[in-house]
Amino acid sequence: MIAPHSVFLRIDISPLGAYVKRKRESFVQLTTRKIPKENTCDTCTESQHPDHSGELPRLRRALGQLGSVERMVLGRRYCPDILHQIRAVNAALVTLETLILKRHMYHCVTSAMGSKNPKNISTKIEELIELMERSLK
Fold first, then answer.
1. Is 22 within 8 Å of 29 (Cβ atoms)?
2. What pTM was computed for the model?
3. What pLDDT score does 137 carry?
4. Contact (Cβ atoms closer than 8 angstroms) between residue 12 and residue 33
5. Coil, strand, or helix at residue 104?
6. What are the CB-based long-range contacts (under 8 Å, 24+) for 126-133?
7. Is residue 70 scored above 90 in pLDDT?
8. What gap in Å lies between CA 74 and CA 3, rounded to an integer?
């Protein structure tokens, strides 16, 4: 029987993008993916975008909880225990999502509305509609 390989993820966030390190039992594989910038704020320069680095501990906690789910599955733990841990991961991510959305509303959307530029305002409204549609799916 072939033993399943555990995958541990580590996300490094830098000004150049997010880099995901995947560590397997026998080797380390580095995957670099630059975050696309097609959805940038027209009313802000890159240095004016809100700083979300304060949320990294929350993100790391969610990643740790997700790793716990993986270990529980591999360890064939009791189903309700796994489901409880999955709910904890979901709750942590929903909280993170809410905090980032609030910051986006108070910073980027407010900035667009204050610019009095119809194109910027329309873009932000469409962006918010798209975010709401995705969250309802």
1. yes
2. 0.61
3. 78
4. no
5. helix
6. 127/39, 131/101
7. yes
8. 10
